[in-house]
Every structure is written in C-alpha cells, then in structure tokens.
Amino acid sequence: MWFISLKKLIQCKYLAHFLNVLPNSQGHLIVYRKAIRTNLLLTWYSLTLKKFFPISFMSNPFIMAGVMGWPVAHSRSPQIHNFWIRQYGLSGGYGRFPVAPDQLEEAIHGIRALGLAGSNITIPHKVEAMNYMDWIHPLALRVGAINTIVRQPDGSLHGFNNDGFGYIESLREAQPKWRADSGPIVILGAGGASRAIVVSLIDAGVKEIRLLNRSRDKADALAEEFGAPVSALNWEERENALSCAALLVNTTNQGMHGEPPLDIALSQLPTTALVSDAIYVPLETPLLATARLRGNTTVNGLGMLIHQARPAFEAWFGVMPEVTPELYAEVLASL
Fold it and tell me: Which pLDDT does position 162 carry in this prediction?
C-alpha cells in the first residue's frame, strides 16, 4: 500500500509541475523537497495508517507557501517570509515558483494538489489569476488584480490584494502622523500598482488625487472608474500638479535599475510633502535622492513589499508578524 500510494502521488501532474520548477528556486530546493516529502508522507499516512496509529505530529504540519511569477528569481518575498518562519519558530517554508503564463492555470490548481497554504502572485499573473479563484475579496475586485491566494479548509481558493495595505503601512512607518486627507496627492502612472494605491488612498480618506500618465487615456479611464476624488491631468502638467501637494507617488518604472530616471522637476513641490516611489531596486531612485536633498521625507518601495506580506503570512501561518530592523537588514543584505 505504501509504495502504490506514494507512486500515485508522485505521478500527479500538478506535483510533477512543481517538482520541475523547484530546481530553479535558488536556495529553497532543500526546504521544498523536505516540504513536499512531508506532505506526501502525511497524505499517505492519512490514507493508510491514521485510523490504526494516530500520531501527534499531525497537529503541527509543515506549511508551504510561495510566490508565482515569470520571472520570479528577483523576488525578495522568500527572505521576508522565511525570516518570520524562523522568528516565530514555525514549521514551514516559502519559495519561488517560476510559472510561465501558459502554465498558470495548472500551477494554481497545483496549490490544492500539493496542499500548499497558498501563494503570492506577482507580475505578470496578477490579473489572469483571478480567473481561477473560487472567491475574490471585494477590495481585490476593485483593484482588478490579486497578489495573494489562500487555500481554505474545504480546498477552495480565495484571492486577495494586499498591495494597498502594504503601501499605506509603509507611509505610516515613515511618518506615523501621516493622514490621507492632509492635502492633494499626485500619482504618476496608471498601471496595476497605481490602481492598488489609488484604492487604498480613497479608503484612507483622501480628498484629492491628481493622476498623470504618459498615455492620458489610461489616466482618464481610472478617473472615470473611481470618480471623485480622482482627476486626470496631462503628463505635460506633472510639474504644475505638484503645487500644494502633500504626497507625490511614482508608480512608473522610471528610475528602476536599467531604466532612465523620472523626468520631473520638484521646484513646485512643498518641502513638507512626502515623496514615495514604488521601486525598491535601487533603494534610492534619482527621484528620491533629489527629494531628500531638498528636505522632503522619502519612502522607497521596500516598505510596501514587506508590509503587504504581513496579511498573507497571517492567513497562511496564523501569526500577524511584526516588521523589525532585523527583517529590513535581512532583506537589504539580499539586494
């Protein structure tokens, strides 16, 4: 019975898929082979000997989660989650799952087959993955994308978007007294990150958002979808839009490693304004460096990345983790 059951489990096409991609997970192979082996043994045990020999370790199973993307080797999510797993003495692991777009449906179904607690979803799968959920949180529906999948006790898959939560928490970490209604907010870019940030700011009580994108039609579409307090402006107005602003947000890829810097002069931006960039490689983009030198408080994208991980970790591992200097040091060491 032991050999037959194990062979059938190994032949599962979803398990084979994950076994094929795990060798590319850069440093997490041993953890995840152990995790897969543990889940296989637990499954075999539950099918064969459980009713005869109940054992105590069933109450503390090895919990697996990860991040699906294409590519995904750059993701720092494993450093974040595995740090918390060690910090709280949990039995589990988190790794990278490179999933090509044409294999996304199969990979998501594999969450059930493998008994994963769930998975983060990153570019380019955040929108497409919604099609394979059994339920999607209303906030994620408003954003139009998910970044977290949580497998429920009945095996159903629920989709969430924690990007906005991560962004707001990163602002409050940098400026504890920050308020969304303290003044106009200027957002550059109208892609997925912008949508999540716009929704989170609206929910936080923002009074005015000035949205600018190189393609005006995308900014117009977001303004029409979300209504007041969002208004779309021409890209050429980006510097005038900074007048009296309390927060400037860059959600474009300008300033990212390998990309040209964001073309904007900050002379009209009050020095009291907070300046944030969704980019975290490099940690200080040219925009943030310029803002810092003129006296603005700056926030890079690393805080957003770390804080968005907290609700997902709680959903999978049952602990709402703290963000500490030691965690930042762990992640920074990998950049």
Answer: 97
As a residue count, the chain comes to 335
Give the pLDDT confidence score for residue 60 in this predicted structure. Answer: 64
**Whole-number pLDDT of residue 49:** 39
Q: Which residue has the tokens 């964001």?
A: 262
- The tokens for 19 are 């076994």
Confidence at residue 92, expressed as pLDDT on a 0 to 100 scale: 97
Q: What is the pLDDT of residue 173?
A: 97
User: Are 133 and 157 in contact, with CB atoms under 8 Å apart?
Assistant: yes
Place of tokens 């991040």: 67
171 φ/ψ sector (left φ>0, alpha ψ -120 to 50, else beta): alpha
- Using H for helix, E for strand and C for coil, what is the string for 8-62? HHHCCHHHHHHHHHHHHCCCCHHHHHHHHHHHHHHHHHHHCCCCCCCCHHHHCCC
What domains are there in the chain, each with its CATH number?
A: 2-161 (3.40.50.10860), 164-303 (3.40.50.720)
Q: How far apart are the first and last CA of the chain?
A: 48
Residue-wise pLDDT for 56-68, tens only, equals: 444 568 999 999 9
Torsion over CA: 16, 160, 252, 227 (sign) = positive
Active-site residue, from 50, 126, 177, 207: 126
The whole-number pLDDT of residue 335 equals 86
Q: Is there a catalytic annotation at residue 51?
A: no
**Tokens linked to 18:** 């994950």
Residues of the chain with pLDDT under 70: 1-60
Q: Which residues are bridge partners to 188 per DSSP? A: 212, 250
